């Protein structure tokens, strides 16, 4: 099964209590169709006393089953907590977007999308040079104004 097809069959389940186990999720979601896989991501810190991170993924055999589970289980209660059930989104690549370790302008495709013409680059360079000639005095041009209000004619 392709990654895209698997994603259509997978639902995100959020707001889980720490008492929820894979067995609990299996029992809660099996009425909607055959389950392929259940995942409860572990905490990032290994010495944490948490069993899981408060969310999980349930993969169904058919996309229709996943949609049915979303429609029926979103907003329901499990162990006294309201859970959120939605279609799973693809995992972000660690080299793209927010949280990336690479500057956005160094990412592949950025320059192709946002590249500017040579004329624009030259104009920007000229502006930088003009600005770097020294700090501009914000009071420049106000020397002759010794009285507030409009200039007398």
Biggest sheet layout: 4 strands, antiparallel
C-alpha end-to-end distance: 84 Å
- Taking all Cα atoms into account, the compactness measure Rg is 29 Å
Please estimate the helix content.
25-40%
Q: Which structural category fits the helices and strands? A: alpha+beta
The outline comes out as elongated
Order of adjacent strands in the largest pleated sheet = 2-3-1-6
Describe the oligomeric state of these chains in a short phrase: single chain
Helix-strand topology string: HEHEEHEEEHH
CATH topology of the domain at 3-87: Alpha-Beta Plaits
Report the CATH superfamily of the domain at 3-87.
Answer: RRM (RNA recognition motif) domain
The CATH class name of the domain at 3-87 reads: Alpha Beta
Strand coverage percent: 15-25%
Q: Uncertain runs with pLDDT below 50, 5 residues or more?
A: none
């Amino acid at each position: 099964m392709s990654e895209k097809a698997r994603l259509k069959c997978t639902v995100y389940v959020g707001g889980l209590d720490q008492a929820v186990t894979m067995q609990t999720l299996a029992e809660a979601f099996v009425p909607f169709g055959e389950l392929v896989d259940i995942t409860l991501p572990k905490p990032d810190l290994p010495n944490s006393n948490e069993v899981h991170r408060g969310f999980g993924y349930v993969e169904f055999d058919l996309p229709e089953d996943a949609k049915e589970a979303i429609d029926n289980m979103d907003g329901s209660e499990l162990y006294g907590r309201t859970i959120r059930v939605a279609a799973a989104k693809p995992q972000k690549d660690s080299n793209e977007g927010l949280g990336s370790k690479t500057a956005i302008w160094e990412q592949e495709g950025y320059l192709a999308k946002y590249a500017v013409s040579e004329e624009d680059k030259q104009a920007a360079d000229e502006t930088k040079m003009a600005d770097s000639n020294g700090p501009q005095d914000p009071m420049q041009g106000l020397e002759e104004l010794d009285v507030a209000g409009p200039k007398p004619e």
